[in-house]
Amino acid sequence: MKLSRTFILYFVLAALLLSCGNRQTDLPDYVVEKEKLVPLLVDIHLTDAFLNKEKKPHSEKYDQAIKMYPAVLLKHDIDRRMFDSTIRYYVKYPKEFALIYDEVLRELSILEGSVQKTPDTEIDSEE
Questions:
Q1: Alpha carbon 73 to chain centroid, angstroms
Q2: How far apart are alpha carbons 57 and 72 in whole angstroms?
């Protein structure tokens, strides 16, 4: 399943991020706190999965992405500037970012399990 490959990719990324950086406890005002960041990143990765599942030309996916990503940020009441500054911040603290991604991956795995248990769900057998 293509979604499983994405999970593996993010797991490897998280493991690499664990190898360096220090944990930071006090967050600056311009950084999204962990409690809001985890659900935001989950929704971003679900949006990625949706866009990558569609068998459309890249230009159409790009047009869809331009509409969908701002909507995800709006849903979480976070603007693009704050999201970007949060990501830049966590690049400096990869161990902390890896811990956040552990939670994101855990949430995505739970969602994936619930989708696979739903009887009427069509599961893509392509790998």
A1: 12
A2: 22
| Nearest alpha-carbon partner for 89 in 39, 40, 28, 44 | 28
Q: Where are the chain's structural domains?
A: 2-111
Question: Which H or E element spans position 49?
Answer: helix 34-53
Confidence of residue 127 (pLDDT cuts 50, 70, 90): very low
| Token pair in block for residue 54 | 């569609």
Which residue intervals of the chain are DSSP H helices?
A: 2-18, 34-53, 58-75, 80-91, 94-117
What does the radius of gyration of the chain's CA atoms come to, in whole angstroms? 16
pTM exceeds 0.85, yes or no: no
Angle between helix axes 34-53 and 58-75 (nearest 10 degrees) is 160
pLDDT per position as a tens digit, 106-125: 999 999 888 877 666 555 55
Residues 6+ apart with CB under 8 A from 71: none
